[in-house]
Amino acid sequence: MIFVETQNFASLPSLPNPYPVHTLTLTPPARERKPTKIVIGESLIDDLASALKTESFDRVVLLYDKGIEAIAQRIQKSLPSCISIPVPPGDASKSLQEVERITALMLDAGCTRNTLLICSGGGMLTDLGGFVAGVFMRGIACVLVPTSLLAVCDAAIGGKTAVNAGGRKNMIGTLSHPESVMIDLELLKKLPQAQFSEGLVEVIKIAAMVDAPFFSWLEENIGEVMKRTSTELSECVSRAIEAKVRIVEQDEHDRDTRLLLNFGHTIGHAVEALSRYKLSHGAAVSIGMIAEMKTLQSKDLKRVSDLLQAIAMPLSILDSMSADALWAVMLSDKKNENGAVRCAVPISIGEGAVKTLTGEQFLTLFP
Ligand code: GLY
Fold first, then answer.
1. Fewest C-beta atoms under 10 Å: which of 3, 123, 261, 336?
2. Which residues line ligand 1 (CB under 6 A)?
C-alpha cells in the first residue's frame, strides 16, 4: 500500500523548490515465506531428482566443496543434467570474489531466476552457497545437502548465510531460508572421528542451553552416538535440529533467543583466530564453552566438561595465548558493547542466558 501525504511547510518559504514537500510511505507486503523442509534419512543423495522435483526448474546447479568430490559424483549421477561448480576447500572461499566467480559461471550456463542451486559440503559451503542463492538475481531456490555434522546441526539450519570481508569472518550475509535441507546420515557415519566430534560440540552446546532432557540423553548415550549407531545417531541429529528449529522460529533475527546459540563462541572465536585457524572451530568452541562457564560462574560446569571430554575435545585455553591478545580480539567482535562483550552461557543445564562479560571477569581465567 502506498500512502501519499502532501504538506505545505510554511516554515520553508525560502526554498527554491516551488513544490510542496511530499512524504511517501511504502509498506512492503509481508514476505511470502515457505517453510523449509528438513529431511533426515539414509542414502538420500542417490535420489535427489525425484525428492526435489528438479524437472520444474530450468537449470539445476550443484555447487560443492572440492573436498567432497566422491559425494558430489553420487549427487551428479542422480541429477544427470545438472551444472557442477566445484569450490576450493577452506574458509578463503567464503569471499565476494568467489561469489562473483560462481555468479559468472551460472550466468554463462544460462541460469535464470527459475534455477535451483543445490549446495553440498560443510559449513563453509552452505554459508557461501546459501549467500549466492540469496543474492543471485535477488534470490533463487536453494537446497542444502550438508556433509559435516556441524553443518547438519547448525550452519544449514536457520537461513543464515555469509561470506568474510575486511579480514573478518561472516561480515556480509543474508537471511535466506532454503527450500529444503537433505540430511543423509550415511555421510555422517563416514566422517573422520575428529570432525564428527567437532560437530558434536555444537550439539552439546544447544542441548546445554535450551534442552535439559536432551542433554541428559546425551550423557547416557554419548558412547553409542560416538560409534554412530543408526538409532542413536538419528535421534541425536533429529533432537539437535528440533531444538534449533524451535529457536529460529522464535527469533529469526538474533534479537534474543537465537543469541543463546553463541554459547562458547565469544571466547571460542578469539581462540580460533589467535590459533590462526589451526584449531578447528569445534575445538575452539569447546574451549570457549568451558572458559565462559568458568568466568560467569555458571552451574553444571562439570556436566558440560565431562561430555566434551567424552568426545575428546580440548577444554583449556592454549598456554601460548595471552589474556590481552584474546581480549583485544573479543572486543573487535560484533558482540562488543562499550568495552564489555556479550556472552551466552547456561545458568544451569537447559537454562541459557545472555550475560555481559567484562575484562576483569575474563582475566580471572588467567591466574
Ligand atoms: N550458528 C548460529 C545461528 O544459526 O544463529
1. 3
2. 154, 158, 160, 258, 261
Q: Which atom of ligand 1 is nearest to the CA of 160?
A: 4
pTM: 0.91
Amino acid identity, position 180? S
Distance CA 154, CA 162 (A): 14
Phi-psi region of 188 (alpha: psi -120 to 50; beta: other; left: phi over 0): alpha
Q: Which has the closest alpha carbon to 149: 102, 108, 197? A: 197
Provide the residue type at 83 as one letter: I
Q: Measured in angstroms, how far is the CA atom of residue 19 from the centroid of ligand 1?
A: 49
List, for the chain, all residue ranges whose pLDDT scores fall below the cut of 70. Answer: 1-18, 31-32, 334-335
Residue 108 has a pLDDT of: 98
Asked if 191 and 276 touch (Cβ cutoff 8 Å), the reply is no
Strand arrangement of the beta sheet that strand 83-87 belongs to: 37-41, 180-184, 141-146, 115-121, 59-65, 83-87
Which among 261, 273, 246, 284 has a CA at the least distance from the CA of 333?
273
